[in-house]
């Protein structure tokens, strides 16, 4: 692969993007990942309504490390005007260097209102929304990108048409998760669809879905010709995957297989970064430590996946309230335990079953209706 990934005035190497993941890709986790390798690390999803209404929780979520560049922010919106207003806030307050638009969310509470993965079906509204964001961002030189799924289900695919519309609107790239909304996180991602999109567009295309190891990323590039890859679940409990990805794109053979002792050190660093993050917005240091430790709990099972660690110790680790407690429990792990090779190449995180996509009444018959769906804005960020 030649050259980095162009994102406005930024040249990114390796062409690797940490996927936005609500509840995961906060400033602490992104720092942990960024310490491993290059790329772009996208923050948790921010809803345009919450940003325009200056929701305090949302404003706190827009946090970047002092040396984090480019600062990459994902917005969720359904209304072109609200989206443009949110983008203007980002630009005027210099909150980020890159804005990604989320059209991939398959959650029923979102699609039932016509948002997320349901929205590109209303092609005129989709084009208007993306254009509104690009027009509001481009005077400041802030690039806008879109992230989407293949469509609602196999009978209602939207990705090629939506990709062309986004290109026409002036986005810097289009990222495709090779699943439909109906698939949720089940089955396997359709890399052939990613190849089809790559062939259809002139702007860079990024592929997303089922990259569990660095060599999967190289395979995806070889299979699809994409300009970059987006990694979500594969890095859960494995921030060092970004070191492997950097090595892989540089053509270097090394891959990390940390011992349990090294994993424990990474867990400790992750928890400390979350405590630091939560303490910044907290009334007391004790509260910040507890909130950071609570946020860390969800990561424990991912870090320990495949290691021979007893159920009781796992449960205790998943209930920590302080760093001292974490230290005590991590001290009980066998540091020499080698990395479980059986955990390599395996799905991690969500792998739920396919499901019916709930849509607003008459949605499928309204492709050319460009009115904004009622109540599809979300007031809460990160979900
Ligand atoms: C816990 C979780 C939260 C997610 N939150 C978002 C989000 O806020 N915005 C978004 O565009 N995608 C979100 N996604 C989807 C991922 O960005 C990514 O597209 C998906 O996981 C497929 O990539 P993967 O196979 O590498 O995991 C989320 C996924 C997970 C597992």
TrEMBL record:
Keyword Zinc-finger in record: no
Domain DUS-like FMN-binding: residue ranges: 18-325
Cofactor: FMN
Active site annotation, chain numbering: 105
GO MF entries: flavin adenine dinucleotide binding; tRNA binding; tRNA dihydrouridine synthase activity
Matches recorded under CDD domains: DUS_like_FMN (cd02801)
Chain segments annotated as coiled-coil in the UniProt record: none
Residues reported to bind FMN: 20-22, 74, 147, 177, 232-233
Record's catalysed reaction(s): a 5,6-dihydrouridine in tRNA + NAD(+) = a uridine in tRNA + NADH + H(+); a 5,6-dihydrouridine in tRNA + NADP(+) = a uridine in tRNA + NADPH + H(+)
Enzyme Commission number(s): 1.3.1.-
InterPro entries named in the record: Aldolase_TIM (IPR013785), DUS-like_FMN-bd (IPR035587), DUS_fam (IPR001269), DusB-like (IPR004652), tRNA-dHydroUridine_Synthase_C (IPR024036), tRNA_hU_synthase_CS (IPR018517)
Keyword terms of this UniProt record: Flavoprotein, FMN, NADP, Nucleotide-binding, Oxidoreductase, RNA-binding, tRNA processing, tRNA-binding
Sequence intervals crossing the membrane: none
Region (Disordered) residue spans: 362-383
Family statement: Belongs to the dus family.
PANTHER family in UniProt: TRNA-DIHYDROURIDINE(47) SYNTHASE [NAD(P)(+)]-LIKE (PTHR45846:SF1)
Role noted for this protein: Catalyzes the synthesis of 5,6-dihydrouridine (D), a modified base found in the D-loop of most tRNAs, via the reduction of the C5-C6 double bond in target uridines.
NCBIfam families according to UniProt: nifR3_yhdG (TIGR00737)
Protein name: tRNA-dihydrouridine synthase
């Amino acid at each position: 692969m030649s050259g980095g990934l162009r994102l406005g005035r930024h040249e990114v190497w390796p062409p690797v993007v940490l996927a936005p993941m609500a509840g995961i890709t906060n400033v602490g986790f992104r720092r942990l990942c960024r310490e491993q390798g290059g790329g772009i690390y996208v923050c948790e999803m921010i809803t345009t309504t919450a940003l325009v209404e200056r929701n305090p929780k949302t404003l706190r979520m827009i946090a970047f490390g002092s040396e984090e560049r480019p600062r990459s922010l994902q917005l969720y919106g359904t209304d072109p005007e609200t989206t443009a207003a949110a983008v203007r806030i980002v630009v005027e307050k210099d909150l980020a260097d890159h804005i990604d638009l989320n059209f991939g969310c398959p959650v029923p509470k979102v699609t039932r209102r016509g948002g997320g993965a349901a929205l590109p079906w209303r092609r005129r509204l989709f084009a208007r929304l993306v254009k509104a964001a690009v027009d509001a961002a481009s005077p400041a030189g802030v690039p806008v990108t879109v992230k989407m799924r293949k469509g609602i289900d196999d009978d209602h695919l939207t990705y090629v048409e939506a990709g062309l519309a986004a290109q026409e609107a002036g986005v810097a790239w289009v990222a495709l998760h090779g699943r439909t909304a109906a698939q949720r996180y089940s089955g396997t991602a359709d890399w052939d669809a990613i190849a089809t999109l790559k062939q259809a567009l002139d702007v860079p295309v990024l592929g997303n879905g089922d990259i569990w190891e660095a060599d999967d990323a190289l395979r995806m590039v070889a299979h699809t010709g994409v300009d970059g890859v987006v990694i979500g679940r594969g890095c859960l409990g494995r921030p060092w995957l970004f070191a492997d990805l950097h090595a892989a794109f540089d053509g270097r053979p090394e891959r990390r297989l940390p011992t349990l002792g090294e994993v424990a050190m990474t867990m400790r660093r992750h928890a400390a970064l979350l405590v630091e993050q939560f303490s910044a917005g907290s009334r007391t240091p004790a509260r910040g430590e507890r909130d950071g430790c609570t946020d860390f709990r969800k990561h424990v099972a991912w870090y320990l996946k495949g290691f021979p660690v007893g159920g009781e110790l796992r449960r205790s680790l998943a209930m920590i309230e302080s760093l001292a407690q974490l230290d005590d429990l991590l001290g009980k792990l066998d540091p020499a335990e080698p990395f479980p090779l059986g955990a390599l190449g395996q799905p991690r995180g969500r792998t739920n079953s396919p499901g019916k996509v709930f849509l607003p009444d008459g949605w499928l018959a309204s492709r050319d209706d460009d009115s904004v769906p009622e109540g599809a804005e979300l007031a809460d960020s990160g979900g």
